[in-house]
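Q: What residues go here?
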């Protein structure tokens, strides 16, 4: 239980990858703060399961991020994971979707980090883990906002790593390929429309076509990598962008 006595905030942890990371950190003794949307009773159940608190702030605004950080208190492990997707050709891409995706997938990580870093520096220990994506390293059509935001998140992470290099605080990205979560499932209808394909064609010819292992990544595999990045043995791992993408970005 090497995270006993440490507080971990995982944004977007009511579902998918964030929930798996929250479970993995809680299993190592961290006091977890959950964030994200969902049904009240389901969230209450998760809080019971993990001995966690939930702060339901909307992270698409600086004010929402500040409200989260105010309610969470000092943070030792910050996992910026909340994210959303929209699939459309650039000339049809709704401006409000662009703004929301940049705000949540990129700017929120800046706002939480700027609030978390002073405490981490004062303690001489901290971990920032940002859920980026294979799309932080490579592009695909029809995902302009998401890919711009994830490339930006990689840049922010490297900058944090350099600024914090001598303070005991590390900053890294985890970059999954396709993980079977609601975020992936929900983009299937729009991808069918944008590419004129059936559901099966989207699954096999668009999604898994990218992934040489031909398997979706499991959320628990990402939880295990996040736990490793929090270990003392990972103290010299900083500014890295860890692929967990079944070989996608090796091609
Ligand atoms: P998900 O849809 O299952 O979970 C998203 C989480 O973010 C939920 O808890 C949701 O309530 C929360 N959220 C959404 N809007 C929010 C807002 N405005 N403020 C606060 N919280 C908000 O998605 P997921 O697949 O688990 O994705 C998690 C992260 O992983 C995202 O950053 C995503 O880009 C990244 N990612 C996912 C995949 C994949 O294949 N699923 C691949 C690469 C990267």
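A:
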């Amino acid at each position: 239980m090497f995270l006993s006595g440490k507080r971990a905030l995982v944004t977007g942890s009511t579902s998918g990858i964030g929930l798996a990371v929250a479970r993995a950190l809680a299993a190592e003794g961290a006091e977890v703060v959950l964030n994200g949307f969902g049904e009240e009773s389901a969230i209450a159940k998760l809080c019971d399961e993990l001995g966690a608190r939930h702060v339901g702030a909307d992270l698409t605004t600086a004010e929402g991020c500040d409200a989260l950080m105010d309610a969470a208190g000092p943070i030792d492990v910050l996992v910026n994971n909340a994210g959303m997707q929209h699939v459309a050709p650039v000339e049809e891409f709704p401006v409000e979707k662009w703004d929301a995706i940049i705000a949540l997938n990129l700017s929120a990580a800046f706002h939480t980090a700027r609030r978390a870093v002073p405490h981490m520096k004062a303690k001489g220990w901290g971990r920032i883990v940002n859920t980026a994506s294979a799309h932080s390293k490579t592009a695909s059509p029809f995902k302009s906002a998401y890919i711009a935001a994830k490339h930006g998140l990689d840049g922010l992470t490297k900058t944090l790593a350099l600024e914090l290099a001598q303070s005991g605080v590390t900053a890294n990205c985890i970059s999954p390929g396709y993980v079977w979560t609601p975020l992936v499932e929900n983009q299937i209808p729009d991808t069918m429309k944008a590419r004129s394909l059936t559901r099966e064609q989207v699954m096999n010819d668009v999604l898994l076509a990218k992934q040489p292992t031909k398997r979706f990544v499991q959320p628990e595999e990402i939880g295990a990598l996040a736990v490793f990045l929090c270990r003392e043995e990972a103290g010299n791992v900083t500014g890295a962008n860890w692929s967990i993408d079944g070989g996608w970005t090796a091609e």
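A: Context that may help when evaluating the design: The CA atoms of residues 1 and 147 lie 36 Å apart. The pocket of nicotinamide-adenine-dinucleotide is lined by residues 12-18, 35-38, 58-60, 81-84, 104-105, 131, 133, 176, 178-179, 181-184 (CB under 6 Å).
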